[in-house]
Amino acid sequence: MRTGRGAVESEALAVTAAGRVGRRARWRPRGDEWAGYLFLLPAVALTLAFVVWPIVQSFRLSLFEWNGYAEPTFVGTRNFAAIARGTSYRDALAHNLIFMVGYTFFEVAIGFVLAALLNTRVRGVVLFRTIFFLPVVIPTAVAALLWGMVLSPQLDPFSAFFEGVGLPFLAHPWLGDSDTALYAVTAIAVWKNVGVSMIIYLAAMQDIPAELLEAASIDGAGVVRRLRHIVFPLLRPITVVLVVLSVIFSMRTFDIVWALTRGQIREALEMVSTLIVRTAFDYHEFGLAAALAVVLFLIILVLAIAQVAMMERGAER
To answer: Within a 10 A sphere around the Cβ of 117, how many other Cβ atoms?
Structure first.
């Protein structure tokens, strides 16, 4: 009995040792794997230097009071307490959330509709794809200058159009009025970037097997039903990616607002990103600006994780 138990224990030890050796051998890179790691090294180094390290520094600086010149003073969570108490910070966050909801919904929805309309073989479809994608390649500063001129009270062709067709209540200085400026900026941002969603959806739609759509059409399903019950469910993973990217973009949007207002941010258009820049470089409160950046980073992270979780849960159902 002892001999048998000893043999079993020896065999188990031998198997364990062999497994450890095997694992060590599997983790040892070969020559071609070392080449792969060397190719990845520049990207990893740049990511650590320009993404990870600034994030770490922002977290550290958020615990200090610093005007950019003198020695930083450790204040703990005082900057975060000031953000929680300040109404201007809450207003900026509210503007970001309103912009996020409007931009994400319309950018993804309009992109899907345009892709569905352009996923045909009619004459001139390539021209329309180019036209709808053209705003994406226009620089933000140029687009902001263009829309600033179009929506100026001196020009404003939209007001003239609405008055001409008998809808004078829509003739309104949308960008100049504080009550509607945020919605005007949202519409401009959607116009600027909807081509990205359109192209991504269009590429995904062209990969859907034509047999599925033909079978549904033979069974009597119309265009809307095919889009709703076949195309959209198959594109759910694409929709998840687009929604998350839109949320991230809308929560950290800066350039379109700054360019439209030429740096003279009005209270109705104050975003968290613009408030961070003004707090740091106008008020010289770099610690408070870093705390705002940390808060914005955490909000974006939570929203992205929550959206992915909800989308995956819906897909499982």
So the answer is: 14
